[in-house]
Structures are given as structure tokens and as C-alpha cells.
Specification:
Clc chloride channel, CBS-domain, 29 helices, disordered N terminus, about 800 residues, mainly alpha, 13 strands, 3 domains, three-stranded mixed beta sheet
Length: about 800
Amino acid sequence: MAMWQGAMDNRGFQQGSFNSFRSSSSDEDLMDIPGTAMDFSMRDDVPPLDGEIEEDKSYNGGGIGSSNRMMDFLEEPIPGVGTYDDFNTIDWVREKSRDRDRHREITNKSKESTWALIHSVSDAFSGWLLMLLIGLLSGSLAGLIDISAHWMTDLKEGICTGGLWFNHEHCCWNSEHVTFEDRDKCPEWNSWSQLIISTDEGAFAYIVNYFMYVLWALLFAFLAVSLVKVFAPYACGSGIPEIKTILSGFIIRGYLGKWTLIIKTITLVLAVSSGLSLGKEGPLVHVACCCGNILCHCFNKYRKNEAKRREVLSAAAAAGVSVAFGAPIGGVLFSLEEVSYYFPLKTLWRSFFAALVAAFTLRSINPFGNSRLVLFYVEFHTPWHLFELVPFILLGIFGGLWGALFIRTNIAWCRKRKTTQLGKYPVVEVLVVTAITAILAFPNEYTRMSTSELISELFNDCGLLDSSKLCDYENRFNTSKGGELPDRPAGVGVYSAMWQLALTLILKIIITIFTFGMKIPSGLFIPSMAVGAIAGRLLGVGMEQLAYYHHDWAIFNSWCSQGADCITPGLYAMVGAAACLGGVTRMTVSLVVIMFELTGGLEYIVPLMAAAMTSKWVADALGREGIYDAHIRLNGYPFLEAKEEFAHKTLAMDVMKPRRNDPLLTVLTQDSMTVEDVESIISETTYSGFPVVVSRESQRLVGFVLRRDLIISIENARKKQDGVVSTSVIYFTEHSPPMPPYTPPTLKLRNILDLSPFTVTDLTPMEIVVDIFRKLGLRQCLVTHNGRLLGIITKKDVLKHIAQMANQDPDSILFN
């Protein structure tokens, strides 16, 4: 899904324009779009670290600074140096080194004074305080979203005259004229037909309710897509593919900003309430990461270091899943298994704490009024039998087939949206899909209810007092011991429910393909779970009836006697939900933990594990990528998957640039180039950094300097260092040699030079190079031969080479 709809305005280099240097840079030509820069209205939500460089000041090549002294760049830090442009990759090694230096300095100073010791303690405690704030804010927003979405979903069917702020369930709770059997019917709750034509009976009343249902759905969807389009283009989708990319080191300014948080929170409620086949669980991860990113600005330790900030975002993702499913442990494992790129032990502890605080906050709010964190919490008491592993594995096969089918068809539809006129009309697309969904959903009670309520209904283990059609069994017994009901023959209501659920399954399978990826917040967890839960319930009821009527068969007679409670259809629904979710996302460990946290029972771990692993094996056999990895590749994000092995026998010299017959590598020399020479190289290229060599003849490597640091340092010198002009010589050496009299002052930039860039020889196998890029998070790696610089390999080059080796289009690795 193309997340951005910001304007792409031509910013070709204009002589003297300092902005043009910055806007044309890319991450080592990561986005090779000459003369073009991507600009979004939301990018100011996350300002560059270490101070903002004023965008409207021109770089005119002249301008002597007001200071009359020679600036020593080795002693005085330059604001902006060490930060990154938008749509660039961070340097993990440099960021971790900077954090170690900062920590070492604080530790040394703590021995000098009491105040420094207090500062050291507060610095160590700041991470835990930040986790506390993230948990509190994430839990509060999740509670607000749950309450609002529940109320607005019921608003499509009617309102509560006893209090407009009550949803249907709470409205009848407060009523004194309601019986237990008809607990969803009370005089205080009025359908739209009762309000408009004063009756709820007859065909005209049905048409009025039908019309109002569709009208409210269209209104909610229109508001959602309009707010996203106008105020925050980044607020659409689930956000998990982009968060995975950001956590791998890529910078997308504004994606986790304040406007994205506000709009995503509002539009998520609207999108869920519209009745579309989507969920709020994935977007809640995005919301939690927005909270984490914004709160990072309150702490210098995290505001000024991109690597440390990503540790916080990993913990925030865990908090997001914790409040989405009421599963703190599952949230931590989800962050570790699915989204995080760098996950040290310290982050594991802090993720656990953030998830704990977020779950506690949501539990305190109690959004569903049942003392549970999710609507579909359920407890089962009947043990499962070994033979039932067969239908559980069948559900796993179904989940794998569904996952592979969904990924292929959804990616094909999203690619069509990106490459045709369809992508230019997001509002129309959302309204059309909403209208089709609402029109087809209203006649069927299982599609009319919210997907979370549907899953709750399917997970439910029928009791004596259940009035649902799914529990309409014939009661052929006198007593029930311990509250457990024996297997019973299905009644008319059960058979009717089976047909309706079969139709619901077909609708959910088809409509979810077209819904996921539209320009509204849309999660995939709940629709996938609903598909699996329906299939599981259908299979569970079938097994239950088979055991009742044929309990004397060999497969049943050893463990299922007549009148016993043998089969639990709700358990099959839960296993099916896990299987389908696993088939789409390829989650395994975290999925099983989330599901057993939902049920509160450890004895069902084996069925869940069997279904999850089977679905993953089947889905992997039909396609290696999960839905999030597929969307990352579709959008051309520079994400280097750490789970896949590179098994091809190629060498660094086969991938590096320049190739044979290409122009020579653009380099800087350590002591023979003027300011004008460097400015000319910056203006004529789009590279984000340059190797520095002793001389062009020797090509002996000295270090590597980033384009942004060069630009900022030269601009700063022109302002503050007296006498720096275009003919001033730039030195990257420790000491500048004596200069003849009447020559312009020299400019020493050794402090911005990386003196230890990663290098490999030209004969290094690419499998080692790929491992280095994955494990160290490199932006680029220099290639040498006998100590002489030969070329450079960037992250983009590695991604294009991997795509080429997999017989894919290398040009698909373009940030789009």
C-alpha cells in the first residue's frame, strides 16, 4: 500500500541552494530519483535529531561569518552533524558507539560530584520511566478506542433513549424491564425504525433499518478515508510493514508523529465501526509505536540516538499487542518474533514491563464491562482427546491454504491499485467496498455484528442459559452434573446457523482481500481469526454430531460414551482462528501464546501448536513470505530479511560499484580539495557519502564521510569561521601543513570523518557480506584490493542482488 500521498516537487540543484544538496541526497542512491525529492506535510512531526537546520537559509557560496577566530571543529560540536535525512538508513554501528561514549562520560562524571551521581541515576532510570509512560498512554488510548468503537458500531442499528452515550449492551444492563432470556431487548433501546416510523415490525421497518445501517456505514467510512487523505496519509493500513522497516533502521519522518497518532486513533474507531472486514489489533501496534516515538522526545538519551529510539519502539510494539489481545507475554514474543530487528536482553525486560503496564491500564478502564481485556475471552473445561489432533491438523491445512491464497490475491490487488487509475481514487474505492460490504452484511446476523462479537460467539462454549442459535440443541436429559452439558443433537437453530456461517465464511474470504490495504486504518488479525473461527466452528459442530450419532464407532467408543461431553465446538473455532492467523502472518510461538492467554487454559497448547505449525508449513510450501513481508517488498522498502539464508556463490566484486566500464568511484582526497571542489561533487551526485583517500593516484583508504555532515559543516564554517571562501582547502588529516602567506584559512573536517569504515576485499563471498549487513545494520561497505579502494556496496546493492538471484526484478527494490 502506498502510504504517502505527499507532493513530489522538483527540487533540482540550483547554484548556491543549500537545500538542494540536502533534498537530492539518498541513502547511497537508495532512492535513485534524480532531481526529485519526496516531501510530505507530516514530516515535521519528528524533527531531525541534534537540532534542526533551518531549511529556508540559502547556501550562497559566500558569506563570511561574524566570528573572527579560527573554529576548531575537533572541540566544538556542530549542530546537525550525525543526524540523517528523511528516507535514509541509520548507521547502527555509529549510533551504538555514540551511546557508549555518552554512557562512559556520564559514568566518569558521576564520581566527581553528588549532582553528577544523581544525573547518572536518573539517566539509568529514564528507560523504565519511559516504558511506564508508554504503557499508560497505550492502554488509555486502547480503552478509548474499544469503548468508542463499540458504541459507534451499535449506533448503526439504533440508539439508547435512556442515555445516548450507552451502547446496546450497557443500555439494557441499566434497564429495569428486561429478562435474562431477552437481555438484548429493552424499552430503552430503540432501533431506527422505531424512532422514525414508531414500529419495529413489517417489511417497511426492515427497509428503514437496512437503509440506516448502510447510511451510517458509508458515513463512517467516508469520514475515515477523508481524514486520512487530508491530514495524515501515513495513518492508513495496519502499519506493521512500515514499523518493521523503521525498526530495521530506515527513517520515515512523520510516520510515528503526533498527527499520525491523532488521526489514526480517530479513524481507527470510524473504520471498525463502519462494519468493514478489518480489525483494530494491527493498527494498535502503530498507535503504541507513535506513543513511544513521541514520548522519546522527553528524554535526550532517546531523542538524540536513533538506535536507542528503536529499542523503545520494539517495546512499544509489545505494548500494542498486549492491549490488542490482552496478552502481555504474547506481545513481547510478537515484538521479538515478528517486528523487531535488534532486540537485546535489556529490551526484552523493558518490553515486558511496558506490556504489563499497558494491560493493567486497559484492565483498569474495563472497556467491555466484563473484567476482561478483550471481547472474545473464553474458558474451556472439557479436555481434548488424541484423536482430535486429526481435525486440528486439517484446520491447520485450511489455515495455510487460506493464508497463501489471501497473500497472493491481496498483493495482486494492491499492485493493481498502485499501477492503475484505481489508486488515484481512494475515497471512491473505500465507499464502494463499504457499500458492498454493508448491503451484503445486513441480512445475515453473523455478518451484521462486529467481527469481534462474531469471534466471541464462535468461541463460546454453549451452556444451559445460552440463547444463541448456535446453542439451539435438543435437550434430552434431566440433570447435568457440574454444569457440563453432554453432547446433544442439533436443533433447527443450529442448522440455520450453519448455513448462515457458511455464507459468512464466503463473504469474509472474498471481501477481506479487497479491504486490506485501502486508505483507512485496517488490521488483518481479526478478519483472519474470523475466517478460521467460522471454519473451526463448522467442523466442530460436525464432529460433535458425528460423535453423538455414531459414538459406537471405533474412533469414538474408547473415549466418548453416550451422554458424555466429548467435543467442544468452541475449541475448534479457537484452533481454526489460530491456524488462519498463522497462515497469513507466519507467526508461530507468539501466536500460540496469544491464543492460550485468550483462553486462560494451558491444556490446549498442543492443539494450538499443531495447527499453527501445520498452517505455517502448508503456507510456506506455497509461498515463503508472510503478508507483512509481501507488502514490504511490494512497496520497495529497504528491508533486509534476517530469517532467509543467502546460498549463492557470488563475490563482492560482482556486486560492488563501479562495475567494469562504469565511471570511476567518486572520492574525496584528504588534503588537496577546496571547498569549491567538494561543493561541485555534492551538486553533481546524489550519493549520501563519499570515501576519503590519500590521493587519487594511491587510492589508499583514509575513511568515509557522510554527505549531510559535509554540507552542514561547510555551511557552519561559512557562517562562523572568518575567511572561509570557495578556494579554502579542506583537510581531513590530524594536522594541516603550513600554508603560504595570504592564502585563505583552511577548513579542518577530520571530526566528521569515519576513520573505521567497514571494508571487505573484492574476493569476499557475498554470503559473508550479506551477513555483515544483516547483523551490523550497515548502510554501506567499502571494497578494497591489496589495501587500495576499489568500490562500494550499499544496502540497496545487496537488496537488488538478492532479488536478482531469486529471479525477481532488481528494480523492484526502489523506495515507492
